Amino acid sequence: MRLTKPTLFTNMPVTCEDRDLPGDLFGRLMREDPSTIKGAETLMLGEMLTLPQNFGNIFLGETFSSYISVHNDSNQVVKDILVKADLQTSSQRLNLSASNSAVAELKPECCIDDVIHHEVKEIGTHILVCAVSYTTQSGDKLYFRKFFKFQVRAYLTLLYYFLFLYEVFLEAQIQNITTSPMFMEKVSLEPSMMYNVTELNTVASGKECSESTFGKMLYLQPMDTRQYLYCLKPKPEFAEKAGVIKGVTVIGKLDIVWKTNLGERGRLQTSQLQRMAPGYGDVRLSLEFIPDTVNLEEPFDITCKITNCSERTMDLLLEMCNTRSVHWCGVSGRQLGKLSPSGSLAIPLKLLSSVQGLQSISGLRLTDTFLKRTYEYDDIAQVCVVCPYLSPES
Amino acid sequence: MDSGEDAAQRPLTLDIAGVGNEEPEAHAPSEVAAISSQPNSTDVLFPEESIDLDAEAFISPQDDSAASGSMMDKLNDQMMESVLISDSPNSEEDDVPIDSLLEQGEDKESLDSKEPEEEKKEDVKEEKTEDMVTANQAADVGAPTPDSPKGQEEKVEVAKATAKEEPIPVCTIFSHGMQPKTLVPDGFQPTLVKSPSFSSGTNETPNKLAPLVCQPSPSLSKFFTDNGTVNPASDFFDSFTTSSSFISVSNPNAESPKAVTPSECQLSSGSSTVPSAEHQDAGTPSAYFSIGPQDSTPKPVAGPAEPAATMTTLQAVFSGSDDPFASALSLSEVDKRYDAWLPSEETRRVLISVATQQVNPVYVERDRLSMPGLKFDNLQGDAVKDLMLRFLGDQAAMKRQVLTANSVEQNFLGLKQLISTKNWRAAVDLTGRLLTAHGQGYGKSGQPTSHTTDSLQLWFVRLALLVKLNLFQNAELEFEPFGNLDQPDVYYEYYPTVYPARRGSMVPFSMRVLHAELPQYLNKPQESLDRLHSMRSVCEKILTNLEEGLAEDGSMMTLTQENRQASIQLWRSRLCRVMYSMANCLLMMKDYILAVETYHSIIQYEPQQRVQLLSGIGRIFLQIGDIRTAEKYFQEVEKTCEEKGTGPAQDTSVLMNKAFVYLSQNNYAEAHTCFSSILKIDPKNPVANNNAAVCLLYLGRLKESLGQLESLVQQDPALYLHESVLFNLTTMYELESSRSMQKKQALLEAVACREGDSFNTQCLKLV
């Protein structure tokens, strides 16, 4: 028998008032019912444990527990009983028996009991093979096997989205595809050696306590999806060598621990998540500093970092073109000087916005005077432009 | 006249011959009367329809023996009717049924006892004849407007309200109602109350009953006779409103319902089909309400003399209602408190117009009325017995003895007996019979009817039992005609004549709760929530009214401080009950956030349930798998318990919570220890016993676990023959051995000796 967690018995309160026809009959029946909560009979969730009614579903990452009982139904004493429980998956065969030693004898109406556990790590058909060998009184060696077949299914689906800026943002989408709610005990990203990770799943509210973005309860209803967001920043030693972060890089792995009914536990760890770093071309422009909110028609500062990702030295010229909403302050067509390979320089820039709302910063042009090649940088960042006069009260 | 009378007699005798015992006699007349009344009236205008109606009434599934007789009756009755209509003075005869109805109560079987009464009646006869005159007048007046029974009703009301300013419009039915008023209590009441004949009421044996049960009226007659209490009518209709039996004797409210109800019944049901109903004089309406006329047979035989006698009884019965004012006063505060409800705007308008006599109830559109009827009948068996037949053989099955609807008194006492012995299926059957007697039987759905306090209570019990039996679909079907329990005809105001001065909802609050909860069991939790929310807002509105110094319904009525407090308390507890239902519903929907919030908010209303509620919330978190939050709640429980001081109850709940936490941490050994230590405090705690056994299984100790559960079931079957325990036990039997069947059958035998027919056999896993 598979031992999933027991369930709590729920009773169905049907009540009446004293003046009603049954008088206190219904109330008495409910009080006498052992499964109700004394003093609060209308509370549906009782305390009585009931054993699992059927095999149920088993999902990847869960622990498969089973009760193995060998009962002597005959009226003979049998000897040298050996019980073996193996789990056959599509790829391997595991021995789950706690002990491999034979039991000397088993009297009629007695039984050998064993509870086995196994954390399921494969999807697909699993077969539990229970083999029992024993010797009868007459000395015959007998042997029988029983098979229990079950399917392991995936508990959740995972989807990833990457967003590359100077940092890498990882959004993991976790969907509960079972029929029961699951409590996400832990969802964490273990970054690879190149990155530091910041979890963006809490909102700092007040002083110390940070509130989860998922609300008060950390459980996932069936078919619910939840996004976990992580920000990965390259460690300084790697960040220096901007050119290193190219091509395929390993980001890290997700570790998910969940619990369901009465603490039934499941755990999944993904394989290393990899990502293809986008090509930056020859020159990479990233933002070192930018305010998130600025006032309308007031100049603000940003700091750009220009990195030479090519193998040669560049001589750069910076041009700034105004767009409809963003106006650059300062001289356009500035010479930035020579930049050696992997070298970078930071340039403070000033600009203002004439339009409210979320504005995209565009219009930077870098020209390599050696190759006469122009690189355009549009939509490098966004700022929120607000009008300071709109809320005079504050 | 005579011919009519003969007609009435004939079927009677037929019946007697057919059934061969006294009971049939008793109800035979009723049958006759019922039939007679209808065809009479319909005959005049809508013969076809009337026939339809009757046919249906008598087709009602169980009814067969009476059918042939009834057809004859019909013919006869029609003849009789023609006579009746033609000459009004003779209307006296028609009174017979109603009188008999009343009389029946006092002496059903003992004819002897009647005679003295008759004498008395004769004394009163003069008065009565006066009444008759008015009745006749009424009949005459009624004649011109035969097609509007409503009109008749209206007149009745007017008559009542305006205190006989216009004697002419008084319809016969009402003249009955009125008569008592004119007639001062005539000392008959005591006789009625103490009538020796009542002693014989209970001696009817189930066997005798059996054949009768099939028919509506017999069961009812049963009902009346069995109760052995003062007033049969009040017994039937008011017996369970708490103080009822007492009130019903003295309180006109209690009595009048029954007498007038028939009329209402007839009116409303007949209204569409039997427009000329008002022609008939007093007797018929009650007669139609077949309950009434089951008086002992001799009466109809007695002929013309009879009416006089019966009339007096009638007066006697009604004597209490002579003073409408008194009745208004006697309407207890308690009634008002419990019945208060806020109808929807639309319904309120109808009720107001009925109360102010702008609209006669009969004019209210049919689709705005609730017209309930049984949707299924005699479905109920005994699953335990079926299983015994299948697995243990006939002989063993023979041993199974449970109460059935036939083996108890056909009244509320019997019903209660069935419920308390957990024979809910039989109880459902019995409610079906009682409702059939009330004219809301099988196939009656959609036909106009009138409600009484008791008929709605019967419905409530029936539906509650269906829900308890998990027969949700059936419950839903039968609930359907009630709509949202807000039709005008489920309010007392709709029956100003029957329940003068009584206000509020006839539908018991618990029935509303049941109605609201039902959809959630049918996978329509949203509907449940909608209903519960509207109930909640009504409760809150009523509480606000009370706090603002108004009456429950918002009217400017002064309540004494005491009553106000009691009322606030009642409505708080009701609000609480609704909140519980909402939380339970949310829990079923797995909307744990809201469920927890709702449970939490109940604590403020029911601080004494704090420990249980917090523990419950903790368990919800455990169910989700959130052990940490659960522990927080459990800590709060501990704190509360410490404040309360340590008692066994507190220790138990703290230990229980601990055990669940261990369980969730897969630490079955510690969990088992906790459950065991609860047993040291409270060795009989069934939950701890069962849970400890479950833990043993997870520890690989099947035999011990089984041993524990088995000994529990043997030692204290009352406590442990519970679904969940048996389920665990059978599950372990299956695990233990391939020969689990025998052990399960042994369990079945244990169940058979103790449990009623409502036992859920699924937990035995025999099939």
Automatic annotation (TrEMBL), chain A:
<comment type="subunit">
    <text>Part of the multisubunit TRAPP (transport protein particle) complex.</text>
</comment>
<feature type="domain" description="Trafficking protein particle complex subunit 13 N-terminal">
    <location>
        <begin position="1"/>
        <end position="152"/>
    </location>
</feature>
<keyword id="KW-0812">Transmembrane</keyword>
<dbReference type="InterPro" id="IPR055427">
    <property type="entry name" value="TRAPPC13_N"/>
</dbReference>
<dbReference type="GO" id="GO:1990072">
    <property type="term" value="C:TRAPPIII protein complex"/>
</dbReference>
<feature type="transmembrane region" description="Helical">
    <location>
        <begin position="152"/>
        <end position="170"/>
    </location>
</feature>
<dbReference type="Pfam" id="PF23647">
    <property type="entry name" value="TRAPPC13_M"/>
</dbReference>
<feature type="domain" description="Trafficking protein particle complex subunit 13 C-terminal">
    <location>
        <begin position="291"/>
        <end position="385"/>
    </location>
</feature>
<dbReference type="Pfam" id="PF06159">
    <property type="entry name" value="TRAPPC13_N"/>
</dbReference>
<dbReference type="InterPro" id="IPR055429">
    <property type="entry name" value="TRAPPC13_M"/>
</dbReference>
<protein>
    <recommendedName>
        <fullName>Trafficking protein particle complex subunit 13</fullName>
    </recommendedName>
</protein>
<feature type="domain" description="Trafficking protein particle complex subunit 13 middle">
    <location>
        <begin position="167"/>
        <end position="278"/>
    </location>
</feature>
<comment type="similarity">
    <text>Belongs to the TRAPPC13 family.</text>
</comment>
<keyword id="KW-1133">Transmembrane helix</keyword>
<dbReference type="Pfam" id="PF23643">
    <property type="entry name" value="TRAPPC13_C"/>
</dbReference>
<keyword id="KW-0472">Membrane</keyword>
<dbReference type="InterPro" id="IPR055428">
    <property type="entry name" value="TRAPPC13_C"/>
</dbReference>
<dbReference type="InterPro" id="IPR010378">
    <property type="entry name" value="TRAPPC13"/>
</dbReference>
From TrEMBL, chain B:
<keyword id="KW-0677">Repeat</keyword>
<keyword id="KW-0597">Phosphoprotein</keyword>
<feature type="compositionally biased region" description="Basic and acidic residues">
    <location>
        <begin position="105"/>
        <end position="131"/>
    </location>
</feature>
<dbReference type="InterPro" id="IPR011990">
    <property type="entry name" value="TPR-like_helical_dom_sf"/>
</dbReference>
<keyword id="KW-0539">Nucleus</keyword>
<dbReference type="GO" id="GO:0016192">
    <property type="term" value="P:vesicle-mediated transport"/>
</dbReference>
<dbReference type="GO" id="GO:0005793">
    <property type="term" value="C:endoplasmic reticulum-Golgi intermediate compartment"/>
</dbReference>
<dbReference type="GO" id="GO:0005634">
    <property type="term" value="C:nucleus"/>
</dbReference>
<keyword id="KW-0802">TPR repeat</keyword>
<dbReference type="InterPro" id="IPR019734">
    <property type="entry name" value="TPR_rpt"/>
</dbReference>
<feature type="repeat" description="TPR">
    <location>
        <begin position="652"/>
        <end position="685"/>
    </location>
</feature>
<protein>
    <recommendedName>
        <fullName>Trafficking protein particle complex subunit 12</fullName>
    </recommendedName>
</protein>
<keyword id="KW-0931">ER-Golgi transport</keyword>
<feature type="region of interest" description="Disordered">
    <location>
        <begin position="47"/>
        <end position="154"/>
    </location>
</feature>
<dbReference type="GO" id="GO:0030008">
    <property type="term" value="C:TRAPP complex"/>
</dbReference>
<keyword id="KW-0813">Transport</keyword>
<comment type="function">
    <text>Component of the TRAPP complex, which is involved in endoplasmic reticulum to Golgi apparatus trafficking at a very early stage. Also plays a role in chromosome congression, kinetochore assembly and stability and controls the recruitment of CENPE to the kinetochores.</text>
</comment>
<feature type="compositionally biased region" description="Polar residues">
    <location>
        <begin position="263"/>
        <end position="275"/>
    </location>
</feature>
<feature type="region of interest" description="Disordered">
    <location>
        <begin position="251"/>
        <end position="306"/>
    </location>
</feature>
<dbReference type="Pfam" id="PF14559">
    <property type="entry name" value="TPR_19"/>
</dbReference>
<dbReference type="GO" id="GO:0005794">
    <property type="term" value="C:Golgi apparatus"/>
</dbReference>
<comment type="subunit">
    <text>Component of the multisubunit TRAPP (transport protein particle) complex, which includes at least TRAPPC2, TRAPPC2L, TRAPPC3, TRAPPC3L, TRAPPC4, TRAPPC5, TRAPPC8, TRAPPC9, TRAPPC10, TRAPPC11 and TRAPPC12. Interacts with CENPE.</text>
</comment>
